[in-house]
Amino acid sequence: MTSDRSTSTPHSGHAVVLGAGIAGLLAARVLSESFDRVSVLDRDDLPGTGDTGDLGSGLGAGLGARRGVPQAGHLHALMDRGREILEELHPGLVTRLVAAGAPTSEALVGGRWYLQGRRVGPVSTGLTSVLASRPLLERELRRRTAALPGVRLLPRTAVIGLVGVGADESVTGVRIRAGAGDGASTVLAADLVVDASGRNSRSLDWLAAAGHPAPPTSRVTVDLGYASRIYQRRPEHLGGDLSVIISTTPGLRGGGAAAVEGDRWIVTLAGLLGEHPPTDDDGFRAFARRLPAPDIADLIGTATPLTDAVPYRFRESVRRHFEAVRRPPDGIVVIGDALCSFNPLYAQGMTVAAQQALVLRDCLSGGLRGLPGRFYRAVGPVLDVAWDMATSSDLRYPAVAGRRTLRGRVTGSYAARAQRRAHRDPAVARTLMRVVHLAEPPTALLRPALAARVLAPGAPRAITPAAPTVRDRLAVPHHEQS
């Protein structure tokens, strides 16, 4: 393929997106403003594309999750900033999700939030939580993406290599194989490839094998394990509240429950550093009883389970610093989890993917030549915010493996104090939640008036882990937690 990348104009050319997850679908949306054609490739079937019926009707495997998203049946959260961006890119999206049965509430008002073992008081934050399951959100985004002019979704399509990937060349397309068999491969030419294929992206290996320098990589090992189960929801559960989040820390364990479409609860239990919840009924209940608050244990003690518990394991957060690569190859941009994969306890992934889509849209206005370098430099500060918030919290615990800095230690210590102060101070609670939802920058917590409140004496201490009872020890054998 030949193309003059320096003279590309809006609404010309062909872009290819690898992966039809949240990051890939949002990338396709912004690419459709700059390219005549956008092809979104995914190895999976893509159910619901073009479907205008009841998005919440089919339970499927619990929630109708597609095979390539093993964590889709677990608890997800769309931060308020993510909701704003999705509404900007797809007006009416939230209305559609609500029509499909997804509840909404204001954070801290319609739900309960525990930090360091204590509940944060119900204070107005101005933040809207959309409690849609991940499969429902993806399905609606697929439907809207497929309806965009010039966009096509290609399910059951495997990408087996990049084209034009030599050390001094630009990427000019991908080599694909349709279906699940071993048939002949074909080349799909592209002016731009956007890799949104996730944390196990093969593009990174293909680029390295062709002589392109690998980006420096940061890792923080948390050894997180969680297990989720779906329950039937009744109006009296949780006293009418729609969610409860019990933050997870080593020794304390944690979990969450959220009301989703179809009058169901998604209940997720989690533990760090190898203390993972079991999936048998007795063990799941026993793990919930040892949380620092009784809300989730009480809920599952009265709710009817609809599925078995399903486990998932997340070993480490990974960030690839492409902004440090002097000359990243033209023709390919890496986004989403392939660029930065966050500890899912902080629920940042979908919102940061939405932020990356906006950065990509802005960078496309400068043409295709040099686009990857512009994008990585521009998206760096966006990633810094979420990465620093999550890793500074994780690295407060000595057993978590990762590079520690003085700045990170100070940030983690201050954030922990802000969390404790939030239990008693509504002003701190409101700002903290707005920072967590990426609606305000972390510097909002450093404003002089608020910092004085955070640093004032008298903040309560975190709750210490409770010793397991004999009943818990019998129900949760040690080997099931490691």
TrEMBL record:
Subcellular location: Membrane
GO molecular function, one term: squalene monooxygenase activity
Residue ranges occupied by any FAD dependent oxidoreductase domain in the UniProt entry: 15-89
Presence of keyword Membrane: no
Topological category with respect to the lipid bilayer: Multi-pass membrane protein
Any coiled-coil regions, as ranges: none
Squalene epoxidase domain span: 307-365
Protein name from the UniProt record: Phytoene dehydrogenase (Phytoene desaturase)
Gene3D superfamilies recorded: FAD/NAD(P)-binding domain
EC number: 1.14.99.-
Keywords per UniProt: Oxidoreductase
InterPro entries recorded: FAD-dep_OxRdtase, FAD/NAD-bd_sf, Squalene_epoxidase
Cellular component aspect of the GO annotation: membrane
